[in-house]
Amino acid sequence: MLGLRRGRASDRRVLLAVREQALTALGAAITARGVAKRFAGAAALEDLDLDLAAGASLAVVGPNGAGKSTLLRLLAGLARPSAGRIEIDGRPPTHRSARAALGYLGHATLLSPGLTVRENLIFAARLYGVAAPRERAAEQLASEGLEAIAERRAGALSRGQAQRVAIARALIHSPALVLLDEPFTGLDRGAAQRLAARVAGLRVRGHTSVLVTHGLEHVRDLADEALVLSAGRTAWRGRIDARNDDLERALAQALEQHGRAA
């Protein structure tokens, strides 16, 4: 009996993997030229250029207030640049096709507190036009280890639980472009490992991803390239290479400058 249960669990994982591959879309390319964002005259981003090929993965790192979250909101079409332009596969982020290809996780979970975890995922799947939304929601519950809280209302979740559900929601439609802002915040070790494996899987399957973080944990495993921001400007950009310490040095300098400015 135990062997049968294990066999069924194994079969289910295989089916989930096949389903995930079937949903996969080609990654989306990102282009940014001379992008600036100002709030009441203060520059959050200034003169930023960025080229990210379809299927590439980028880690954006830097101290607090460097402009990381602002950049992600601009890429997601949730804010408009004060200057410059951004294109997702040749179209502005606010274009319908760009929005449909996007999976975004910001600081807010975007969950409806009165709905259950399952209902939140079904709603998101329908919003993105996913075929068989109930089945897709069930798959996400299984892949993220959320089945035990599936019928719990989102408003009753802990911070870590809500973060895990928000991640499942952001990936419900297997988006071509995934934007994650500090996704490991509030996660316990097991959930963090599960998320790291999920993001690594997206990378392998050719999704484009941008991961914002203030440190270098997970960066080498989850990204091909890195962008270090300091006071809203590019301090360093390059491929992540374990054989040199350019990235570490650039981040250390950005943190030092931030400390002096504070």
User: What is the H/E string?
Assistant: HEEEHEHEHHHEHEHEEH
Portion of residues within helices = 40-55%
CATH architecture type of the domain at 2-28 and 55-79 and 91-101 and 175-261: 3-Layer(aba) Sandwich
Output the strand order for the largest sheet. Answer: 5-6-7-3-8-9
Radius of gyration: 19 Å
What is the 3D shape?
A: globular
Instruction: Report the total helices.
Output: 9
The low-pLDDT segments are 1-7, 9-25
Proportion of residues in β-strands:
15-25%
CATH topology of the domain at 2-28 and 55-79 and 91-101 and 175-261: Rossmann fold
Gap from first CA to last CA: 63 Å
Can you describe what's shown?
The structure is a single chain. By secondary structure, this protein is an alpha/beta fold. It has a domain at about 1-30 and about 55-80 and about 90-100 and about 175-260: P-loop containing nucleotide triphosphate hydrolases (Rossmann fold, 3-Layer(aba) Sandwich), CATH 3.40.50.300. The protein is about 40% helix and about 25% strand. The strands form 2 sheets. A 6-stranded mixed sheet has the order 5-6-7-3-8-9, with helices on both faces. Strands 2-1-4 form a 3-stranded antiparallel sheet, with helices on one face. Helix 7 links the parallel strand 6 and strand 7 (about 210-215). The radius of gyration is 19 Å and the shape is globular.
